[in-house]
């Protein structure tokens, strides 16, 4: 349809356009016309996308970071129930990008998926704000009537709130991977200058996101705790409307990637595994010798996973020549399989990552959070230490460390992406060791002042003792999270770029689920025979220090496994990493 934004598929005219020096191959504008390098994409388009990402992160963290306080406060849930609900919602929100990426890469394209997800986001935020208004009115009426025992919200209000939360999770699942991938699409990886700019884009996208998160942690948590939950959830709704408008304003500058594949890349890769399984015990006198010029990824490691080569075979007497898998399709399937060990060994990092918004916050609640005679730091805003450390260190990394490393290694990114991820895992290990030592000190202080049996008492120990563990975890994200973003985007086949981002997000999602399972198992195991659980509601008798030491040990094991697989990993030759 003329005048509508072009998607990555069904644009045959653009594929037939001859290449020119200033034309970006494989990309079109919003009307389906070939795009000029000098007038499209790059930082001009990326600036719109970075602003949209900042707005979305402000919104998401404005809801998620203080969610446990709303569940245990106005909704009246217990700490254990609220923690389970937060972990379940957070894990679901981090896993849904896999579905969003599938829809984008197979059907809608990134641009349209972002549009639809933004509308769902706004709808979910509107419902969320409305539900808090209902709840506050109910509580106000019941308090005025002095019926304290009936001040809990109705079942409908709770269900409506949870529905709004999961609608936001669905919207985030489509929005998050597509915005990041669409931003990276604005840089041509085959052009040396744009390739270097793309690496910086990932750094600055993450830095800008963390800046927005910091603002949300400081401002929204204060509004929610001290003014109104309705206002605290209503502001994100307004911000998301602004983000959608800003995204639309950049439409004329965007580059839209053309996907010339005849079938969905998911179908193509699935077909390879299916045919390889069918041909597992067959003999063949013929094989597919065609090598497609488009979509073929020239991997040095193509001798790996040779069982998939059976997808190229035609059993004797078969008439399936027309449905042969190409060498390119087999190589794409191998590329996905090659990523699995790296993905799996990063899962422990996802478990560590989940602690900052749960147990770190619960530690802070028990400590002295006062600044001056009258101001008290909101417990949820402590996570801003992570964001601040990221914003500061991103600049140091991009402007100082990368140029130094580049002069030594001659790589555009300074160090390889796997080296960057490994460094992040090591720093997360240090964060857990520090967290365990600080928690040991907190428990000793509680015992010294006789506060063991006073869970609501403030321990005379400044909350800023937690700063080092937050800072180390923040710096670890500069290496691990940004490294995973660029690595999975760079190493997946060309038709699965949104899925690449979803893979890194799934690490955080599964990490959240694994954290919940691990805590549940340890709580049952450590509370036997009348003993206090490691996760007792009375943190002064709990043993979060043991749990942090356990996570440090798991991180060390995961780092060793990661190093083993990273050493033998063969990068896509088209990559500069």
Automatic annotation (TrEMBL):
Pfam families the UniProt entry points to: PTR2
Superkingdom of the organism of origin: Eukaryota
Major subcellular site: membrane
Location of this chain's protein in the cell: Membrane
Membrane topology field: Multi-pass membrane protein
Keywords, alphabetical: Membrane, Phosphoprotein, Transmembrane, Transmembrane helix, Transport
Molecular-function annotations in GO: dipeptide transmembrane transporter activity; low-affinity nitrate transmembrane transporter activity; tripeptide transmembrane transporter activity
GO cellular component: plant-type vacuole membrane
Ranges in a coiled coil: none
Keyword Transmembrane carried by entry: yes
Residue ranges of the TM segments: 115-134, 154-171, 201-223, 229-249, 336-355, 375-397, 417-438, 501-526, 546-566
Presence of the UniProt keyword Cell wall biogenesis/degradation in the record: no
PROSITE patterns according to UniProt: PTR2_1
Similarity remark: Belongs to the major facilitator superfamily. Phosphate:H(+) symporter (TC 2.A.1.9) family.
Official protein name in the record: Protein NRT1/ PTR FAMILY 5.10 isoform X1
């Amino acid at each position: 349809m003329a005048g509508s934004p072009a998607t990555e598929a069904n644009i045959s005219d653009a594929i037939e356009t001859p290449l020119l020096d200033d034309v970006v191959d494989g990309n079109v504008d919003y009307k389906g016309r070939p795009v000029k390098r000098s007038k499209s994409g790059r930082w001009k388009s990326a600036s719109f996308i970075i602003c949209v990402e900042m707005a979305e992160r402000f919104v998401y963290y404005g809801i998620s970071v203080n969610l446990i306080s709303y569940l245990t406060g106005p909704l009246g849930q217990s700490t254990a129930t609220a923690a389970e609900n937060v972990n379940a919602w957070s894990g679901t929100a981090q896993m849904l990008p896999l579905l969003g990426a599938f829809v984008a890469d197979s059907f809608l394209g990134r641009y349209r998926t972002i549009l639809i997800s933004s509308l769902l986001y706004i709808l979910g935020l509107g419902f969320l704000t409305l539900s808090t208004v209902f709840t506050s009115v109910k509580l106000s009426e019941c308090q005025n009537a002095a019926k304290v025992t009936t001040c809990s919200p109705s079942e409908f209000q709770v269900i409506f709130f949870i529905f709004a939360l999961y609608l936001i999770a669905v919207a985030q699942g489509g929005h998050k991977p597509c915005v990041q991938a669409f931003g990276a699409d604005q840089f041509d990886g085959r052009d040396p200058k744009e390739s270097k700019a793309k690496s910086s884009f990932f750094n600055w996208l993450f830095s800008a996101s963390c800046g927005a998160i910091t603002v949300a942690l400081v401002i929204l948590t204060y509004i929610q705790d001290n003014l109104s939950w309705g206002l605290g959830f209503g502001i994100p709704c307004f911000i998301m409307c602004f983000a959608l408008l800003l995204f639309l304003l950049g439409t004329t500058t965007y580059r839209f990637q053309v996907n010339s594949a005849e079938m969905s890349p998911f179908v193509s890769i699935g077909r390879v595994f299916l045919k390889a399984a069918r041909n597992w015990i067959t003999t063949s006198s013929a094989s597919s010798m065609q090598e497609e010029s488009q979509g073929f990824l020239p991997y040095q490691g193509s001798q790996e996973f040779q069982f998939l080569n059976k997808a190229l075979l035609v059993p004797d007497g078969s008439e399936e020549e027309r449905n042969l898998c190409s060498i390119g399709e087999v190589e794409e399937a191998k590329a996905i399989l090659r990523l699995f060990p790296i993905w799996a060994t990063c899962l422990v990092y996802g478990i560590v990552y989940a602690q900052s918004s749960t147990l770190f916050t619960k530690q802070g609640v028990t400590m002295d959070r006062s600044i001056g005679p009258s101001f008290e730091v909101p417990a949820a805003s402590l996570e801003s230490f992570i964001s601040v450390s990221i914003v500061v260190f991103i600049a140091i990394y991009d402007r100082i460390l990368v140029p130094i490393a580049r002069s030594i290694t001659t790589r555009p990114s300074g160090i390889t992406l796997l080296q960057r991820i490994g460094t992040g895992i090591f720093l997360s290990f240090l964060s857990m060791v520090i967290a365990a030592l600080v928690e040991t000190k907190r428990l000793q202080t509680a015992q010294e002042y006789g506060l063991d049996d006073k869970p609501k008492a403030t321990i005379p120990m400044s909350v800023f003792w937690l700063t080092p563990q937050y800072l180390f975890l923040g710096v670890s994200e500069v290496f691990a999270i940004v490294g995973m973003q660029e690595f999975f985007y760079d190493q997946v086949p060309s038709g699965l770029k949104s899925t690449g981002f979803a893979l890194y997000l799934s690490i955080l999602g599964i990490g959240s689920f694994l954290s919940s399972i691990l805590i549940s198992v340890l709580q049952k195991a450590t509370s036997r025979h009348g003993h206090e659980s490691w996760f007792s509601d009375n943190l002064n008798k709990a043993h979060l220090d043991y749990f942090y030491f356990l996570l440090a040990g798991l991180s060390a094991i995961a780092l060793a496994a990661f190093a083993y697989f990273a050493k033998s990993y063969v990068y896509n030759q088209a990559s500069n990493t």
